[in-house]
Amino acid sequence: MKLKGKKQERSEGNEGAKGKMTLSLALVSLVSAFGSSFQYGYNVSVINSPAPYMQEFYNKTYLDRHGVPMDSGFQTMLWSFTVSMFPLGGFFGSLLVWPMVNNCGRKGTLLINNLISIVAAVLMGTSELAKTYEVIIVSRVIMGVFAGLASNVVPMFLGEMSPKNLRGAIGILPQLFITVGILAAQILGLHNILGNAEGWPVLLGLTGIPSLIQLLILPFFPESPRYLLIQKGNEEQARKALQRLRGCEDVDDEIEEMFQEHRSEKEEGQFSVLSLFTYRGLRWQLISIIIMMMGQQLSGINGVFYYADRIFESAGVASGSIQYVTVSIGAINVVMTLLAVFIVESLGRRMLLLAGFVLCTTSCAVLTVALNLQTTVSWMSYLSIACVIVYIIGHAIGPSPVPFVMITEMFLQSSRPAAFMVGGSVHWLSNFTVGQVFLYMEEGLGPYSFLIFGGICLGTLLYIFFIVPETKNKTFMEINRIMAKRNKVEIQENKEELRDSHPVLGSQAERKGISSSEL
């Protein structure tokens, strides 16, 4: 009893030390999110405001080359390529996640990815000087590849570095910086700043600056401790990385938990995407991330943003002021995602997902009615505005940030890269599909398009309610045990074998007065 009491006291003391947000952990989280996730958001919206000036540049360049103006149909096709190549590049970037993070590490992949972003930024920034619109389209593909890698690797990197009681909050930071990037592009894209005929090349080229900052600073921070220990087998480096991130010398509990994870999945080895789809022990995890990622992108967020300008204009907002309203919506998105950072550890991932999809489902249903009646009932346009705001709030607190956190938590080290590759591919393919299909939906169904989005939100909501477990404040192994029961498989776990296979932990335990049975 006395021995257990001492162990419990020691464990509680270490838990308090390890659960703190240390300066090192905070800096690596901010540098990673700013240097990678920020550009994803920035490039989502950077071409919206200067679109007329960029299309004018396309036409002028074509005229200078051929002596005749560009055909309107050809110009529409080129601009469609300019917009759609970004999510398509994101899909290709997601396909690179598994090989790159396994061979180059998490940090190494982010550093290589920074070079991709800088090259694309230079090409876009000099496109007008070079008088070539083709370079802009190619650069959008390159930036898409960058975003596809960043959107998957940053949550994986930060999730593996975080203590379990901060993993949700830190895991939402990438999404927070995505919304900050969208807002930054909206502000810089105002007509009186850079969203004009002279400023748009600078606006496009600025995306390289955060990547350059990350390229210079990130090498001074440690690699993911889980990658170092479980995949590279380097306990010494993993221990040093953990000690720096946690701000304390005693990290034995986390090292032990990593070895338990390694032991439990040692027989399977590294999962490929094919083995991920065929392995029964990960069936429900895989189905869950596919449904959550599809629900995230097919829930109508792009449609709401598309309709937003029209909705605010019908409510009497002057056309010249619409751009400032768009910035306001972007600011709401940032504030609500920031709120999610602070409440995800208290309310949990599952609660935020459920609450978010409830708000999105309700908003889509009411918005359909309001849009149909706003020409006959004057105050319906204001109800439409309210629905847009409520929808954005709902999406920002749950469906946008939480699915990537869940991928990190629902998979162990050997299957996590392949899971991110699958989840990221579904994310970007769904994004691309909505971009291609929505205009046809809007033309054929009008406001009734939101009934389809509402149905997708409702279906995702029901799936999460019945299937997806709460993962807050649990170790990866604890989450794995929960999912093993749903998959109806047994986890092979033997702590005595673990101690024998890793005598360092056993000897450290003995020095600290802990019996082998307690280890």
Automatic annotation (TrEMBL):
Top-rank lineage group of the source organism: Eukaryota
CDD domains linked: MFS_GLUT_Class2
Organism: Ptilonorhynchus violaceus (Satin bowerbird)
Sorted UniProt keywords: Cell membrane, Membrane, Sugar transport, Transmembrane, Transmembrane helix, Transport
Major facilitator superfamily (MFS) profile domain segment(s): 29-472
Family indicated by similarity: Belongs to the major facilitator superfamily. Sugar transporter (TC 2.A.1.1) family. Glucose transporter subfamily.
Pfam families for this protein: Sugar_tr
Spans traversing the lipid bilayer: 21-42, 77-98, 110-130, 136-158, 170-194, 200-221, 286-308, 320-344, 351-373, 379-397, 418-441, 447-468
Mode of membrane association: Multi-pass membrane protein
Subcellular location: Cell membrane, Sarcolemma; Cell membrane
Region (Disordered): 495-519
Identification of the protein by name: Solute carrier family 2, facilitated glucose transporter member 5
Transport as UniProt keyword: yes
